[in-house]
Design a protein that fits this description.
Blueprint: E1 7-13, H1 19-33, E2 37-42, E3 45-51, H2 56-69, E4 74-77
Antiparallel strand pairs: 1-3, 1-4, 2-3
Length: about 100
């Protein structure tokens, strides 16, 4: 059985390595304010995690606003969809979601 930590992975992609500075200066502090953490960076990608309790709406708003200021950047969830882009749904199950009948 696969276990989940209750964190949502966010991947930020960019071709221009100068964008990494903008990630550090603007996006990382905003993610930190939501309780998220910086996980690492490889060429052209930075990864963050956020607690699922933050909610998808808040994450979507934050990321859409940031990407709007950096049009050459893109982002995606890292552990929300399967290989066919179907939602995994782990956040809806206990202990993360409401228990059945509760």
């Amino acid at each position: 059985m696969q276990e989940r930590s209750g964190n949502i992975a966010i991947q930020v992609f960019y071709l221009d390595e100068l964008i990494a500075e903008r990630v550090d200066q603007h996006l990382a502090p905003a993610i930190s304010r939501l309780g998220g953490t910086w996980e690492g960076r490889a060429r052209g990608v930075t990864v963050f995690t956020l607690p699922v309790a933050v909610g998808f709406e808040a994450i979507d708003r934050l990321m859409a606003a940031w990407v709007a200021t950096v049009p050459s950047a893109e982002w995606s969830y890292g552990n929300v969809y399967d290989e066919l882009d179907r939602p995994l749904g782990w956040w809806e199950e206990p202990p993360f979601g409401a228990s059945p009948g509760g």
